[in-house]
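Incident log, support desk, overnight shift.

02:14 A customer reports that sequence design results differ from what the structure should imply. Their input is reproduced verbatim below. On-call engineer (initials T.W.) acknowledged and began investigating.
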């Protein structure tokens, strides 16, 4: 769970502090502490005078680049501002936050700081204590705090409904935190009127339809509904506080997306949540929105007619409402469902995508589609050996010279692109990446962490550590030696290397037509890295209609039940044309649609 939490970003922080006790005098100076983080050491510097913290900074880090670095900068600023380490962690960078705060506390202890400055309290979010969810009489319940859920909740509350948002973790964001900051849309008020290539909902509909000819998992009516809603839904995000920057066309002028302006750290989902947080707080203060954080919804409640009237939670509580919007994301961490698809797999998605509410809807007869389709990422090094493990290490598999082989030692595909198909087809979904000493010396083999905060492995330190520990990385002076260590067929691997080296000498790959510039003979010490595939997201899920009602097997709406976001999959809306901002347009548009229809239904 800690490793899952280390790869998630957050938006909800309660940053509160207590002033330094007057009688706690520190020894002025600058104190440095080196601490182990998620994957590497980092060093913090804390400067103090007798009574106050003057500066906090990270002197050196290889551990917390990307998301973790953002969290540390936020926390450093607040430590100085609040004169306390009594701060909430930046969820989504929980390990980075905890280790950073601990390192600062250790530096302050060296300086002689008092207990009040060192107090630890990082168990709440900004909204948790404002409204008691058990005493909140909700009109609408939203389950899930990713982008689809947050958009649903804010939209419905803005329209006058009382909304309870239930989230199983202590932060908001979900899988959306792993995505870039681009939000695709068509028809926004921000589109320049003078543009000769004006984007309209109709142009986006046409592009989606043309791009998905022959795709049985594309639903044109849903694509049209998404396109129509995307502009107004996007404008709402901006109205709530999101700061748009660059505008870029996609799909040959069929639509466009806007990068969320996040200053130094650009293009992360974290900043969308961070910037709309004041809007949520405004609605909480107005009595329109409440949060039940760290509350896991497990089932749906229905009345005698079969209409959905609320949810049950893991702590045996029930919450009632007139409508329920499911926005719990995909099922990348639902082991029972995932093991129907893959024998071995890892996770690139949010640890909260556990699938319980998808299964709860299925228990009511909800219709599903494409449950065997996922977004699959190759090259994960699964040091735990367990299914569903969060990605810690990944090989850049398409690096020039690397060769992919199966358990029999045979090449499985051309290695010039990041093609996930060989991992899907391989025995136990396992492919071995073969390289030699020269490649190890000249390339960085591993990336550390998830895509949203991945960094390269400096000097291949983690590569050699895993090699020494015998965890998924093996070496040998001959093909037979390395194959035996890795559990690969020795004769098969030796034959493959001999044939491949012949292709390199000839400058032509007779098996897979690999580009000549990427052919490099394998000599000297050889290495095999055992890799599996990882699931970035699920592409199937609940079937909904154009108003985001969940449909049953008869294609009839289940009364009172809506769904938005990845719980409905992705192929139903953007099918074969995956594009920047595509994930967010699904969440934003259908969160908007579900909320408006649910509010309208309250008046009927």
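02:41 Re-run completed on a clean worker. Output:
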């Amino acid at each position: 769970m800690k490793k899952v939490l280390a790869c998630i970003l957050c938006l909800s922080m309660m940053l509160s502090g207590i002033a330094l006790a007057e009688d706690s005098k520190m020894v002025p100076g600058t104190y440095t502490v080196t601490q182990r983080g998620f994957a590497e050491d980092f060093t913090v510097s804390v400067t103090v005078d007798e009574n106050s913290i003057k500066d906090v900074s990270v002197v050196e880090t290889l551990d917390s680049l990307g998301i973790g670095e953002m969290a540390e900068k936020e926390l450093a600023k607040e430590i100085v501002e609040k004169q306390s380490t009594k701060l909430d962690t930046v969820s989504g960078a929980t390990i980075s936050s905890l280790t950073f705060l601990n390192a600062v506390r250790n530096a302050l202890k060296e300086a002689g700081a008092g207990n009040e400055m060192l107090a630890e309290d990082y168990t709440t979010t900004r909204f948790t204590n404002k409204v008691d969810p058990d005493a909140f009489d909700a009109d609408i319940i939203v389950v899930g705090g990713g982008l689809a859920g947050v958009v649903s909740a804010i939209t419905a509350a803005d329209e006058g409904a009382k909304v309870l948002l239930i989230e199983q973790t202590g932060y908001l964001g979900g899988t959306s935190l792993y995505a870039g900051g681009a939000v695709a849309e068509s028809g926004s008020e921000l589109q320049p009127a003078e543009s000769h290539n004006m984007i309209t909902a109709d142009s986006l509909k046409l592009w989606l339809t043309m791009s998905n000819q022959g795709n049985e998992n594309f639903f044109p009516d849903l694509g049209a509904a998404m396109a129509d809603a995307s502009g107004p839904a996007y404008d709402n995000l901006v109205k709530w506080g999101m700061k748009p920057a660059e505008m870029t066309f996609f799909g040959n002028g069929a639509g466009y997306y806007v990068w969320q302006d996040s200053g130094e750290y650009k293009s992360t989902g974290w900043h969308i949540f961070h910037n709309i947080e004041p809007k949520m707080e405004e609605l909480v203060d107005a009595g329109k929105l409440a949060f039940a954080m760290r509350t896991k919804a497990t089932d749906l409640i229905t009345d005698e007619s079969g209409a959905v009237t609320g949810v049950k939670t893991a702590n045996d509580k029930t919450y009632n409402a007139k409508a329920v919007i499911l926005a719990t994301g995909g099922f990348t961490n639902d082991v029972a469902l995932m093991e129907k698809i893959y024998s071995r797999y890892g996770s690139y998605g949010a640890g909260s995508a556990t699938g319980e509410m998808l299964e709860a809807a299925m228990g009511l007869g909800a219709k599903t589609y494409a449950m065997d389709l996922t977004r699959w990422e190759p090259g994960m090094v699964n040091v735990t050996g367990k299914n569903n493990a969060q990605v810690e290490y990944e090989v850049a598999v398409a690096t020039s010279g690397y060769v992919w082989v199966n358990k029999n030692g045979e090449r499985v595909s051309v290695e010039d692109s990041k093609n996930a198909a060989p991992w899907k087809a391989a025995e136990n979904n396992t492919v071995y990446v073969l390289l030699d000493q020269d490649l190890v010396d000249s390339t960085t083999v591993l990336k550390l962490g998830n895509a949203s905060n991945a960094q390269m492995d400096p000097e291949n330190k983690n590569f050699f550590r895993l090699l020494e520990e015998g965890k998924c990385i093996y070496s040998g002076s001959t093909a037979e030696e390395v194959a035996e260590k890795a559990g690969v067929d020795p004769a098969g691997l030796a034959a493959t290397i001999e044939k491949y080296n012949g292709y390199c000498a000839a400058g032509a790959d007779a098996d897979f037509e690999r580009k000549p510039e990427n052919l490099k003979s394998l000599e000297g010490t050889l290495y095999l890295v055992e890799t599996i595939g990882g699931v970035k997201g699920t592409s199937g899920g609940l079937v909904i209609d154009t108003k985001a009602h969940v449909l049953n097997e008869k294609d009839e709406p289940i009364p009172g039940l809506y769904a938005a976001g990845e719980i409905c999959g992705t192929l139903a809306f953007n099918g074969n044309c995956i594009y920047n901002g595509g994930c967010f347009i699904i969440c934003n548009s259908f969160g908007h649609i579900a909320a408006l229809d649910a509010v309208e239904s309250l008046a009927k």
